[in-house]
C-alpha cells in the first residue's frame, strides 16, 4: 500500500531558510528517513541530511519531526495518518549548516571539557577488579549513541543560547555521573559538576529522558543521583560533619 | 568566554522558525491537568487546615495529625502528649504542615510537575518557554531545593505517625470504612516517601562499591523499584490523603453517619 504523503521540510543555510512543501510517495513499512531519501532522489537532489546506519545505532539522523526530536530512521510512517502533513526541521538548539544538517560541535567541545577516567595511581592497567553490580549503573549510560537529542531538547540551552557557555547539557552531565559512580575513578567530579558544568541549571523536567532513543533514564539514574552527590558535598552539614568525624 | 544573548549571531545561526513549537499533539494537556490537580490540592489543603472537625473517635484527619497542643481533644493527641501546650491557639495542623508540604514541594517529581505546569519552564518538551532569562536551581531561592533530604527525614516521621493513627483505628474499629481508608492512605504515603530519590541516594546511591555493602545494595534495589513508580505514588498519595482527610471530617461533622463509617 502506498500513498502520496504531504511533507514540509526546512530548506536553507546558516539559519536563514523556509519550510518547503513536498508531496512524496510513501510505501508500507517505511520510516521518515526513507521518505527524505526518496525526496532527495526525486525532487530535491541538493537536500542535505546526515545519516549513516539506518538502524537507530549511529545517532546521525537526529531531526525534529512534527516538532519532536526524533531519529529519522526510527520514526515509522505508520505512526502518522495519510492526510497528515509531516513537518521535518533540523535540531533547533544547534546552528544549521544546510537544510537538516546541524553543527553539533558544541557537544564535542563540552565532551573535551570533562576530565577523562582517572584511576588511582597505584592501580595499573590490567589490575582493575570490579563486580558487575559495581559497574552496571554506569553501563546504562554507555548505551548512549550520541544523537544529542537530549541536549537539543533541554530548554536550558534550547531557549537560552547564553547558557551554552556554562552548561554541559544532559549528555555530558550523564558522562560526569558515569565517571563519578565508577569504582575506580578518583577524580573529584562533584564540585566541577556544579561549578563548571552547570548541574544546578537542570530543573529535572525530564525532557532528555523523554526523547532518548536508547531509553536511558537520564534524569532518574544520572542527573538526580549526581545532584544528590553534590548535595552531599556542598549543602548537607550532617554529611560534612560525618566526613570530618570518620575521616571519609 | 563571551556571553551570548538570545539575539546573538550564534542564536541566529539556528533555524529561524518563528513559532513556539511545531508539535501537533496535545502537548498542553499534561501541564493543564497537573495545574488543575495541584491547584485543587492547594485549595483543599487551605480549607482543611482551618477546619475544626478533624477528630472523631478513633479517626484523626491526616492533615491535622499529629495533634500536639492542649486544644486537641484527649484522644487526638499523639501518645496523649501535648508538648506545645496551650499557647498555640491556631489550627493544630499548622504546626506540622511544613514537613509534608516541604517534602512534596522539594520532591524531584513535583519540581518537574510545577516547573512545567505553573512556571512553564518549559510547559512541555520542545515547546518554547516564555522567560527571557534562566538560572535554574543555581541561586536563591531555588537552590534551597537541595534541602530535600531533610524534608525526607521529616516525612518518614509523618508517615510513621499516620501509620500509627491507622493502626489505632484498626484496633478500635476494625470494621470501620474510615479505618481502611486511613490504612490505604498510610500505605501510599509510606510508599511514596520510600520511593523518594533522596531515600534512594541515602540507602546506597552514594556508594561506588555496591559489592562491599550487600545489605545496602539490596535496600537500594528495593527503593529503585519503588522509585520507578515515584510519579504514580506521588499522585496516588496526594489524592488518598485528601480523600482520607475529607472522609474523617465528614464523619466528624455528622454528614456521614452510616453504621460502618
What report would you give on this structure?
- Chain A: This is Succinate dehydrogenase/fumarate reductase iron-sulfur subunit.
- Chain A: Pathway: Carbohydrate metabolism; tricarboxylic acid cycle.
- The complex is a heterodimer of chains A (248) and B (261).
- Chain A is of the alpha+beta class.
- Helices cover 35% and strands 17% of the residues of chain A.
- In chain B, strand 1 and strand 2 form a beta hairpin.
- Chain B has ten helices and two strands, in the order ααββαααααααα.
- Chain B is mainly α and 261 residues long.
What percentage of the residues of chain A does DSSP assign to strands (E)?
15-25%
Give start-end ranges of low-pLDDT stretches of chain B. 1-5
* Rg of chain B (CA only): 22 Å
Number of helices of chain B: 10
How many domains is the backbone of chain B divided into?
1
Helix and strand run of chain A = EEHEEEEEHHHHHHHHH
Question: What's this, in brief?
Answer:
With 248 residues, chain A is α+β, with helices and mostly antiparallel strands. Chain A contains ten helices and seven strands. Chain B contains ten helices and two strands.
What are its keywords?
heterodimer, A: 248 residues, alpha+beta, Ubiquitin-like (UB roll), 2 domains, five-stranded mixed beta sheet, 10 helices, 7 strands, B: 261 residues, mainly alpha, two-stranded antiparallel ribbon, 2% strand, globular, Succinate dehydrogenase/fumarate reductase iron-sulfur subunit (chain A), 2Fe-2S (chain A), Beta-grasp_dom_sf (chain A), 2Fe-2S_ferredoxin-type (chain A)
Amino acid at each position: 500500500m502506498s500513498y502520496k504523503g504531504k511533507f514540509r521540510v526546512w530548506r536553507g543555510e546558516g539559519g536563514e531558510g523556509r519550510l518547503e512543501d513536498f508531496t512524496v510517495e510513501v510505501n508500507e513499512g517505511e520510516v521518515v528517513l526513507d521518505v527524505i531519501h526518496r525526496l532527495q532522489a526525486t525532487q530535491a537532489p541538493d537536500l542535505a541530511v546526515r545519516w549513516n546506519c539506518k538502524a537507530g545505532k549511529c545517532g546521525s539522523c537526529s531531526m525534529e519531526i512534527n516538532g519532536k526530536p526524533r531519529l529519522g530512521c526510527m520514526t515509522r510512517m505508520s505512526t502518522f495518518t495519510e492526510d497528515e502533513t509531516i513537518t521535518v526541521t533540523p535540531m533547533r538548539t544547534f546552528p544549521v549548516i544546510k537544510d537538516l544538517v546541524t553543527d553539533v560541535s558544541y557537544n564535542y567541545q563540552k565532551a573535551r571539557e570533562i576530565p577523562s577516567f582517572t584511576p588511582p595511581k597505584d592501580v595499573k592497567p590490567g589490575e582493575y577488579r570490579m563486580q558487575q553490580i559495581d559497574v552496571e549503573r554506569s553501563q546504562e549510560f554507555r548505551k548512549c549513541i550520541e544523537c544529542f537529542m537530549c541536549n537539543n531538547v533541554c530548554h536550558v540551552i534550547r531557549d537560552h543560547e547564553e547558557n551554552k557557555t556554562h552548561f554541559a547539557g544532559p549528555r555530558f552531565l550523564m558522562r560526569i555521573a558515569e565517571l563519578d559512580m565508577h569504582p575506580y575513578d578518583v577524580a573529584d567530579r562533584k564540585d566541577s559538576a556544579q561549578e563548571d558544568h552547570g548541574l544546578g541549571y537542570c530543573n529535572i523536567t525530564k525532557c532528555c529522558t523523554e526523547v532518548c532513543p536508547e531509553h536511558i533514564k537520564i534524569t532518574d539514574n544520572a542527573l538526580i543521583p549526581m545532584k544528590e552527590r553534590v548535595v552531599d558535598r556542598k549543602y548537607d552539614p550532617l554529611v560534612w560533619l560525618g566526613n570530618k568525624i570518620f575521616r571519609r | 568566554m563571551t556571553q551570548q544573548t538570545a539575539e546573538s549571531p550564534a542564536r541566529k545561526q539556528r533555524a529561524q522558525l518563528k513559532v513556539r513549537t511545531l508539535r501537533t499533539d496535545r502537548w498542553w494537556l499534561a501541564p493543564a491537568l497537573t495545574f488543575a490537580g495541584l491547584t485543587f490540592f492547594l485549595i483543599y489543603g487551605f480549607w482543611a487546615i482551618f477546619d475544626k472537625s478533624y477528630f472523631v473517635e478513633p479517626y484523626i484527619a491526616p492533615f491535622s495529625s499529629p495533634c500536639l497542643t492542649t486544644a486537641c481533644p484527649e484522644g487526638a493527641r499523639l501518645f496523649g502528649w501535648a508538648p506545645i501546650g496551650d499557647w498555640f491557639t491556631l489550627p493544630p495542623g499548622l504546626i506540622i504542615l511544613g514537613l509534608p508540604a516541604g517534602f512534596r514541594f522539594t520532591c524531584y517529581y513535583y519540581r518537574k510537575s510545577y516547573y512545567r505546569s505553573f512556571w512553564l519552564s518549559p510547559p512541555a518538551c520542545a515547546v518554547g518557554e516564555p522567560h527571557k532569562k534562566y538560572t535554574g536551581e543555581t541561586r536563591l531561592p531555588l537552590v534551597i531545593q537541595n534541602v530535600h533530604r531533610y524534608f525526607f527525614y521529616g516525612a518518614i516521621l509523618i508517615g510513621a505517625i499516620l501509620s500509627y493513627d491507622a493502626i489505632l483505628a484498626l484496633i478500635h474499629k476494625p470494621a470501620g470504612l474510615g479505618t481502611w481508608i486511613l490504612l490505604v492512605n498510610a500505605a501510599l504515603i509510606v510508599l511514596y516517601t520510600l520511593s523518594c530519590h533522596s531515600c534512594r541516594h541515602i540507602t546506597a546511591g552514594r556508594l561506588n562499591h555496591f559489592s562491599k555493602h550487600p545489605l545496602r545494595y539490596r535496600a537500594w534495589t528495593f527503593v529503585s523499584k519503588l522509585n520507578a513508580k515515584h510519579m504514580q505514588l506521588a499522585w496516588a498519595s496526594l489524592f488518598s490523603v485528601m480523600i482520607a482527610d475529607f472522609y474523617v471530617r465528614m464523619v466528624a461533622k455528622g454528614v456521614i453517619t452510616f453504621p460502618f463509617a
